[in-house]
Amino acid sequence: MDFAKIELRQYLAKIKANRAKITPQRVEILNIFLNNKNDHFTAEEILVKLTSSKTGQATVYRTLELFCSIGILKKVIFKNDEISRYDLVDLNNRHFHHHLVCSNCGKVIEIQDDLLEILEEKIEKEYQFKVSNHELIFNGICSECKGSDINEP
Amino acid sequence: MDFAKIELRQYLAKIKANRAKITPQRVEILNIFLNNKNDHFTAEEILVKLTSSKTGQATVYRTLELFCSIGILKKVIFKNDEISRYDLVDLNNRHFHHHLVCSNCGKVIEIQDDLLEILEEKIEKEYQFKVSNHELIFNGICSECKGSDINEP
DNA sequence: CTCAGTGCAAACCGTTTGCAAACGT
DNA sequence: ACGTTTGCAAACGGTTTGCACTGAG
């Protein structure tokens, strides 16, 4: 739990560094992501989790966008539903992870593999294209769905 | 030009194979993609190109979705604008290509590299995840924008 | 002849915006 | 005190839908 506090502090520092203010709403939203690191929430899902407080939806959208612009969150869109989802950026990891999205149950698995470095180098040389970011999504069938019939999640 | 006709026939055959009808609207939309293979049109862009005929927007959306579902088009969403775009699938190429998206001018470069096969194999072994498709987008700065100042497209 | 496909306009829904009040620093 | 941030509700814009008409097979 103390570790979580230290982590939170890192993110708050990043907000301050961008001359944005620390508000209860922002801290609350940040904590939702910190406490659910394997999830990929939509704006609406965040809004639901905030029903106890009276945070408005505009604030949620504005906060999520702020966090993306300062590098705290990353927006991802899976082809399943095409809704914007947000994923906490690991401040201590240079590269963003990739996603395996199961076409059957919709589960999203994160992988940390970094084999793309080779590809990036090749692209920078061959196309003179300076890569700043990449996003890789694999669609397919996860191990749990493999044996079973094709059903909804 | 004859080659184009043969190509068109392949796609029309695919429509028939899916028990869908060949209508003037569908042929017209298909031809737009065949004649602009390097573009990634949005539904609206297609609609504009059809102003001469009186095709309705609902038809455009329904046709694009049909083409996706039968494997003639592939939907791609670039983070620049987040609008759905459509890319013709090469019926003779097993793997879909990848995209380099310039953060400065918005240009989209297609690359055919297939280094992902290695990664796919690794993923199938390590995660027991059967990959059926992948999508890889590199964001960065293209060669033309490299030297120049950062401007709009 | 029959049902899939079309056009139109209205509905949909995730997201954005304008503005006055409330708050962080 | 100042400029940010917030909440509300209305607007926005890409996409979908309902329905009667049309046309491909």
Characterization of the model:
- The structure is a homodimer of 153-residue chains.
- Chain A is of the alpha+beta class and 153 residues long.
- Chain A folds into two domains: 1-91, Winged helix-like DNA-binding domain superfamily/Winged helix DNA-binding domain (Arc Repressor Mutant, subunit A, Orthogonal Bundle), CATH 1.10.10; 93-153, Dna Ligase, domain 1, CATH 3.30.1490.190.
- The first copy, chain A, is built from six helices and six strands; from the N terminus they run H-H-E-H-H-E-E-E-E-H-E-H.
- Chain A has helices at residues 2-17, 24-34, 43-49, 57-69, 116-127, 143-147, and strands at 41-42, 73-77, 84-88, 98-102, 108-111, 130-141.
- A three-stranded antiparallel sheet of chain A has the order 1-3-2.
- In chain A, strand 2 (73-77) and strand 3 form a beta hairpin.
- The mean pLDDT of chain A is 89.
- The interface between A and B is large, with 36 and 36 residues.
- Strand 6 of chain A pairs antiparallel with strand 6 of chain B.
- The structure holds a DNA duplex (25 and 25 nucleotides).
Which ranges of chain A are low-confidence, i.e. pLDDT below 50, for 5 or more consecutive residues? none
In angstroms, what separates the terminal alpha carbons of chain A?
Answer: 32 Å
Biggest β-sheet of chain A: count, sense, barrel? 3 strands, antiparallel
Name of the CATH superfamily of the largest domain in chain A: Winged helix-like DNA-binding domain superfamily/Winged helix DNA-binding domain
Quaternary structure type: homodimer
Task: Tell me, briefly, the overall form of chain A.
Answer: globular
Strand-residue proportion of chain A: 15-25%
Count all strands of chain A and give the number.
Answer: 6
Judged by helices, strands and strand pairing, the structural class of chain A is alpha+beta
Q: CATH class of the largest domain in chain A, please?
A: Mainly Alpha
What do the pLDDT scores of chain A average to?
89
Number of domains of chain A: 2
Strand order of the largest sheet of chain A: 1-3-2
CATH architecture term of the largest domain in chain A: Orthogonal Bundle
Q: Which H/E pattern describes the elements of chain A?
A: HHEHHEEEEHEH
Greatest interface (CB-CB under 8 A), with counts per chain: A-B, 36 and 36 residues
Kindly state the percentage of residues in helix of chain A: 40-55%
Give me the number of helical elements of chain A: 6
Radius of gyration of chain A: 18 Å
By CATH, the topology of the largest domain in chain A is Arc Repressor Mutant, subunit A
